[in-house]
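REVIEWER CHECKLIST
Item 1: Sequence provided? yes
Item 2: Single chain? yes
Item 3: Sequence as submitted:
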Amino acid sequence: MNNTLIVIALLLTAVTATAAALTRDPVRQAAVLALLGLCLALLFTVLQAPDVALSQLGVGSAITPLLILLTVRRVRREEHPDDRSDRGE
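Item 4: Structure as written out by the authors:
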């Protein structure tokens, strides 16, 4: 049973990692990376490494996607500045 769980977790991780590599839109990629972090945390838990799984949950599932989303937001804002000067504000 344990080997079956490991194989399922590995396959789930491989599918999610492939989806993350093939995703072009940065916002969707951040969401897929968060899902990949969850899959990796599950894999680490199945492999009896709960400390690594908790670290993966914090960094891979939360902080990294959040930083990507904040970066995308900032880049898009700089590409399209507000037209306040045109409106007289």
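Item 5: Key structural point noted by reviewer: The mean pLDDT is 90.
Item 6: Recommendation: ____
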